[in-house]
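Re: duplicated header lines in exported structure tokens

Our pipeline writes sequence and tokens for each protein into one text file. With two proteins the header for the second block appears twice in some exports. Here is an export where it did not happen, for reference. First protein block:
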Amino acid sequence: MKENRRGFASDNNAGVHPAILEAMGAVNDGHVIAYGDDPYTSKAEESIRQHLGEDTGVFFVFIGTAANVLGLSSLTRSYNAVICPETAHINVDECGAPEKFSGCKLLASDTPDGKLTVEMIASHMHGIGFEHHVQPRVVSITQSTELGTVYSIDEIRQIADYAHNNGMYLHMDGARISNAAVALDRNFYEMTGEAGVDVLSFGGTKNGMMYGEAVVFFNQTLCEDFKYRRKQGMQLSSKMRYIAAQFDAFLQNDLWKTNALHANRMAQRLYLAVKDIPGVVVTQPVESNAVFAQIPPEIIPGLQEQYFFYVWDDDRSEVRWMCSFDTTEQDIDEFALLLRSMLSSE
């Protein structure tokens, strides 16, 4: 790949939004009390509560895997199970960390569009009360999903109701929650706490932040000991003001929305640019900032040399193209032109 060329591998590959860098610089002055007992962290926590509810418990951590693992651990014991999609980040891309650190078993469902349904969850609800079987305790969904699709609020509420009626909790991996919110044209609270989510991993790294996530509890009785879990989990930042400053800037003046809207629009532009190219088959609805497509395997290496991206499924020659807050129309148009050219010369 040409050095520093924007590709379509991941929104993690994008840089940091200038407003985020400016906010971090603005708090880089003098001494404040460490480990979150500073005014910047308090301000950022209040900003999150304004978006997610005044009674929420908010805890900053370094990375999304930690947010998921610690959030799930706070809801479970080692004999419990977490029901999730087969494609979930906790199942595929966290190196077994959720199972290692929570001691729980993941029960994964094959989901053609990345979204769990009540019927899929119900298929795991057996052996309840039987000591030879793990006991389902949490349902975990991802918004937007690993396949770029988005749960409607009604779908989330149905899952939450089923979980609660069966003595379970609902966890949401919100690594790309901003992209889902703008896709639905709804606010964060409407599709989380109001819809029945118990614990949210609230992410911003994929949408313009440098690093940092927040674990958000909508029922504070669930997080009474979380500060100890965070410390044991090696996620208590001494200089927390730099995570906090990012979240404050991210939420102020709707920067999160501006960035996510742009990324989603670029994905739509990419979809429209490639969907009619002979040899390209788009495999998932383009609802957020991802485009999944099948393309001939022989062109992938050459295409990746110019614009890096990942192969999602080798067996199907399915690739994933992610758009970011800094993806440009020129990036899209030149990539689509190259793709068309390579396919026409086949």
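Second protein block, exported in the same file:
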Amino acid sequence: MKDSNALQNDNETRARVIGRVELQPAATGRKHTPSPSNGQDFMQSLATSPWMSKQAEREYQRVLSEIKELQHEKRWEDINALFYPVEEKLADLCMAGMDAGIRQEVAFSLGRAGRHQDAIKCVKPVLKNDPDNVMAHYSLAYTALDLLYTARVKRQLLTPQRRREMIDLAHRHFTKAQELRPDSVTFFYREGILYKEIEDKPRKAVPLFQKAVANWDRLSDEEKKERHQQRPKFIRALYHLASSLLKLGMPARSLEVLERVMDEDRDQDHVSAVFKHFAMGKVLHTLGRPEEALDHLDTAAYRAPKGEGIEYVYELSARCCLAAGNSDRALTYIEKIARNRRRPYVQWTHADSLVAAGRMDEALKLLEGCAERDRRTRHVALIRIARIHYAAGRMEHALNAASEAASFCEYTFGNASNEALFWQAAALHGLGRNVKALEVLEDLTTRRFQYPGLGRLLSVVRQVVRQEQHGANRPAICLVT
């Protein structure tokens, strides 16, 4: 096996030889000298150049063809070794000002190889010579977005400053690209993804997805054929628009958009069948139509490629069964998930299913183990533990679990969980500590917290406190929610 240095040498040799039209024998490896700022001097240099324009055009097309072929085979490192830095590997084309398209393709390959900073460095020179090069602006924006998305998926650490820089870079160049080409589908779709997936700002993403869809819709049939490569982005813009609307609490509008996704993407699956049917299941579940949701979720599971992890599909299926009042069926869906793939959110639904089936001790044991292992969302399990103890009349245990959940959120996220505080107040009331319970409940109302039973519990606790303050010697009313 060749070592990395030998491979690099082979790649450099290939860059000089494979199909190459030798424009200037001494040019290989020569660093690109910036063009003089004086336009007449540049034209003088161009007029006396030793190579012919036809040769340059052929070389440009040859390089692009070779890059495209290697991209098709996903040989990113080969592309990078052959053509980066562009000013060194293709000095003559840079001197001729014919490097813009090549730089954008090489930048894409650098990004695929995880070399996003090199990709940004590769494209920036294009804008120095041509500030209105729309594809260069898009390339920079896309590279920054890809860096942010890759870091999120691979859980790579980005400093807050670095993250902010990349977000700002992406927005700046997406905006410029949109100004230069306002009828684009892709440019608006990509910035929508930046807001939705990276910044978690669905409200800002919605108009961008809507603009992408509107731009496609206003094309004629002939224009749609000519710009067919943008159709997948149109479909995905619809899909993410539906997802954003659901996040914003508009499930009915989300359903309308998803139904169009199902119709437009019936045959090609630009959005995977698993994601489409799961999204339909999620919206229908939110709308209180669990049986219809289960039909789509079963289809999602059936259409999933063998070996693909679809625990999120089975977990939502279990929740739909709980909504339909069928705890036994919910448990059968949970059992479809391998134990080593039961992340905390699956265990929460598993516990809810056990509670619904009357198996409280099993649910407690499951949740206690989950809370012990989970270092990020353990408050969710603790709140469920508090509720189980409260329902069983074990108020001290309920208070301890709810207080621990509130303290965990305060320490981890900087503010206590409102839901944990609600159950803390409920337990305090159950223990007869109504003045403290009232203090917690009134604080929750000032935060405009909405929760089932909050208003009723507040009314009962206020009544009891009034009685206590007036010396009424009556037993406290304990409200089990």
